[in-house]
Specification:
By secondary structure, the chain is an alpha/beta fold. It is built from 13 helices and 19 strands.
């Protein structure tokens, strides 16, 4: 079978050197990659490096190899075009249809999915001109990954950092797997909760659960690859931030509730994948609870936490907002799931059987998605991203 053909566009930013790692991930996973840098990108990484890593000649000009019409052929034959890093200048040219070099010509001729991974200083990213250009590209069906927050060139820190190449690769892999040129969640804002909340007992102990956050992160990563703006409320998950996702770290159920409610007003969909503690200790010990010889510990009194899923289902912030819950059950899985769906009032409920060696921390999942309209969508055992795609398929159908 032919290898998937990927065009890696590289524009002139200091993060160009990080694109070498992205290129390596593509080539080592069996993709045929053609690197198309801008002239300014070659000030950061030379053509010899790109040629050696990709196995293809590298050019920035439409005049090289004219008999092969590269400014048309490269984009026409690509299965995916990804520009990483994408500078403010490159985004402006792409949004306005300018074509003054080989990369911008390729963008105009491509009829495959296109992904941009911006990297620039915070002020440049936040400038109204850049934001309008990004909105234009997204409206046309391109996936523009939100830049990360962190250390920039020099001593600056803020939003505009090039996302982790491994996470950009995962986003591109998901885009390629779907094989559609127009993302079905483009222009949508989705909120995903992930991980497991922890309720403190004393300064060193807490009540928690076994959730790793992997399913919620798969949902966030998949939504970003399908064009959505994603807010990920992450409870104690030790996982790398998905590319293009705004991550809000939280600890307790109360903090998770606050973060979800803050993101709720302009959300088109909310997926509550986090394992939220039903109870918390009634009292918090300011000092470590000591073990005393010959004495049993004091009984632990618990109180209920807020039911966040029921709360946001009952008080939707906007018409047509889709609410999705998760139900982790150990017995009578479907019966308990149907009862919970009715009790919570959400649109969809993902029901799965859990246990010490099931679901939590695993790379795979198996579930049934119950709909408030009586539908049942079984998802066979497989990667958690497959379940995520099924959930977003059902959400997209309801949003449409």
């Amino acid at each position: 079978m032919d290898k998937p053909k990927v065009v890696l566009g590289v524009s002139g930013g200091i993060a160009a050197y990080k694109a070498c790692e992205l290129l390596r991930r593509f080539t080592e996973s069996g993709h045929d990659v053609r690197v198309v840098p801008t002239a300014s990108a070659l000030h950061f990484v030379g053509a010899a490096t790109w040629s050696a890593l990709s196995g293809h000649p590298v050019s920035t000009e439409v005049w090289d190899g004219v008999h092969e019409v590269p400014h048309v052929r490269i984009g026409q034959h690509a299965d995916l075009v990804v520009v990483a890093p994408a500078t403010a200048d490159l985004l402006a040219k792409a949004a306005h249809g300018l074509a003054d070099d080989l990369l911008t010509n390729t963008l105009l001729t491509a009829r495959c999915p296109v992904v941009f991974a911006p990297a620039m200083h915070t002020e440049m990213w936040e400038h109204p001109a850049t934001q309008e250009n990004v909105a234009t590209l997204r409206r046309r069906g391109a996936v523009v990954i939100e830049p990360a927050v962190g250390r920039l060139t020099g001593v600056d820190t803020g939003k505009g950092r090039f996302p982790d190449p491994a996470e950009i690769f995962e986003a591109c892999r998901r885009v390629l797997a779907r094989g559609v040129s127009t993302p079905d969640l483009a222009g949508r804002h989705v909120v995903v909760s992930a991980g497991g909340t922890r309720e403190p007992l004393d300064p060193v102990r807490f009540l928690g659960n076994r959730s790793s956050g992997k399913q919620g992160y798969a949902l966030a990563r998949t939504a970003a690859a399908r064009g959505a703006r994603v807010t990920l409320v992450s409870a104690n998950a030790s996982l790398p931030d998905p590319a293009g996702v705004d991550v809000v770290p939280v600890g307790t159920a109360a903090e998770l509730r606050e973060a979800v409610l803050a993101a709720l007003p302009d959300a088109d969909a909310v997926v509550m994948a986090a394992a939220v503690a039903d109870f918390r200790p009634a009292a918090y010990a300011t000092g470590k609870i000591k073990k005393r010889d010959g004495q049993e510990p004091e009984p632990l009194t618990l109180v209920r936490n807020p039911d966040i899923l029921a709360e946001i289902s009952a008080g939707r912030a906007r018409p047509g907002q889709v609410i999705v819950g998760f139900a982790a059950e150990t017995d009578d899985v479907l019966a308990n799931g149907r009862a919970k769906l009715k009790r919570k009032g959400c649109d969809l409920l993902v029901v799965n059987e859990v246990g010490e060696r099931k679901t939590f921390g695993a790379e795979e999942n198996e579930a049934v998605v119950l709909g408030s309209d009586g539908t049942e969508t079984p998802v066979p055992h497989g990667p958690k991203e497959a379940l995520a795609d099924t959930v977003w398929d059902l959400v997209a159908g309801r949003l449409a």
